[in-house]
Each structure stands twice: as structure tokens, then as C-alpha cells.
Structure prediction request, 370 residues.
Amino acid sequence: MDDGHIHRFEGYRVQHSSVRGPAKGGIRFHPQVSLDEVKALATWMTWKCAVVNIPFGGAKGGITCDPKHMSQGELERMTRRYTSAILPLIGPERDIPAPDVYTNSQTMAWIMDTYSMTKGYPIPGVVTGKPISLGGSLGRNEATGRGVFYTIECACEHLHVPLKGATVAVQGFGNAGSIAAQLLHEAGAKVIAVSDSTGCIYNRNGLNIPELIHMKTLCGHVERFPESEEMAPADLLALDCDILIPAALENTLHAENAAPVRARIIAEAANGPLTPAADRILEKKGAFVIPDILCNAGGVTVSYFEWVQDEQHLFWEAQDIYNRLERVMKTAFRDVLKIHLERNVPMRIAANMLGIGRVAEAVQIRGIYP
Ligand code: GLU
Prediction:
């Protein structure tokens, strides 16, 4: 550490499946990271990649740490040490990490560099979510939020909810939540409440999202934003709004707080934000849940585009990436909706049926060996 003492961090990399292609999934730096959490997140990655039909399996990594209280130097040393520990497990044809909660393109640059320096030549395809200057893809940074936006567009169309003027509450204002809010704001929706780990703000007439993102980038919080009132983060969930976007961590909607939810559409920008109990409560209320493995799959989809570009050494234009992402997300939404309607099952079950079904088919065709 910067003060000279040695700190021991616990880190994990879990590969859940490589049946349909190399294992794929982000790396999370957070105090709550545990082996069980990483295993669950790796499993979701397998189904997620299958739902959007990209040729990857599922993996996840994490280090139990508090990145908010670490310097850049400490983060770099920890990231490189972790990379060297998981080095035999990863690779462009084997397992490809990416950003997740509290990791970003700089983290990916350190992983790419550590991996490449050890192997002796540059290997950009070992991670996605890299800086553009290292073989990153245009549109990757905004991809999760953009994918969330496309699935909300589809849900609104299906339910005949006009997006223009629709009211939105966003829990968690990180990469996914802030970009989804920004695109909804641009499409004429009113984002009336936003919370992050420091607080929660509200304005019935809609918050100025571009300015809020600007302030969050400068100050690191949403609290004390002009033209907004402070509100208890728990109250955000119970707001009278059309769309609720849980974009923070797992299990934020549970048996104790799901009953007061009034939103018609719940868009799971986070991984696993609803517990099974919350799912049942919201199902009974008639809420339309866009499940995480569909809703937030835009990130890994553009990761796939990045990996393809790296492997081909040929880079695409931003508009090309947006068009391809929109096509992938809207096709996946249609596929899941079809199962939901034809088989009369909740959207989450439908997404699981599609994802698990595709993996099962691949397992069956490959057969079991050795
Ligand atoms: N961490 C993101 C997720 O949970 C992206 C993973 C990736 O791009 O590999 O989907």
C-alpha cells in the first residue's frame, strides 16, 4: 500500500461454462465480493450470452476490496497481482474479462498490459472494455445503458406505454444507470428520481440528466443537485412512476420493500436486483420485469463486438456498433417475449428457458467427453 504496509486481498475468477465459446464476464472490485457472489454472477453470464446469442460462455471475477478508499497506485498494483494469479486461466480463446462494478477501462488496460508483457507480445483480445487506444471498441462504455434503453423501448411498445413523457426512477447512478437515464431523457422520458450509494434526489418535473452526470463526474455523488429535493433512497422504490430501473447491486428489491413498488415496468440494469420473493410480489402486482440477463446484455454484446474487432484487427464505426447492438437487443427481446406469451410464463422464466435451452442444446450436440 502507499504507506508501505502489505495488505492481502482475496480475489476470485470463476468459469461457469465454456460450452458455447470462451468464458466471458466482468471483474468486480467491491467490499461485498465473495466466492458465492462471483459464482452466481458467472452463472448469469452464461445464460446472458446465450439469450443474446453471442458465442461465449460465462465467467466472473472479483476482489474483495474498497476501491473508493484506494489510490490509483494501490489499484494498479492490486490489479496486476490479481492478473498474474489468474493468468493461466484467461486468454482470448479461453476466458475474457471485462469491467463490472467499480472497474473500468483503466483496469482493463492494466490487465491487458500484465498479460501481454508476460506472454511477450500485445494481446488486446484478452480483455474487453479497454481504452480505444488499446483496441477498445467505440460504444463499449455506454453499451450496457444503451442496451437497457433498447429493451425499455421494446417493453413500452409491447405495453403501449408512450416513452415520451414516461416517468422513470433510477436506483444506482453508475455506468449502466446513468447512461440509461441519459438516453431515456433524450427520448423525452422524465427521470424523476435518482439514487446512488451516497443519497437520493427527486424532482416531479424531471431532473436535468446531462447536468447531473456532469456533477456526478466532478463530485462523485448525486446529493445536493440543484432543482431537486433529497429523499430517502428507500422511498424511490415506492414512487408513482412508469419505469423503475434498479441499476445498483444484487438483492436490492426483496420481500420487505417490493410490495410498495408502483412502476409498470421494472428494467433490471443491475445483475440480480430482485430476490425471488420480490419477483413473486411484483408478478402478482402485474409489473412487467425485463430480466437482467436480457436487460443488461448490451455490455457483453459490445464486448463481443470488441473481441471480434481485436481478432480481425479491423475496427468499426460507432453508428455500425449502435445498429448492430440495437438489432441484437431487439431480437433477443422479441425471442423472450414470444416464449413469455406463448408459454404463459414470467419474462424471467422465458429468458431462462431461452438461455438455458441454447446451452443445453450445445451440450447435447457436443456430447460428453472424456
Ligand atoms: N460486467 C458486465 C455484465 O455483467 C459485462 C461483461 C462483459 O462484457 O464481459 O454483463
Notes: The mean pLDDT is 97.
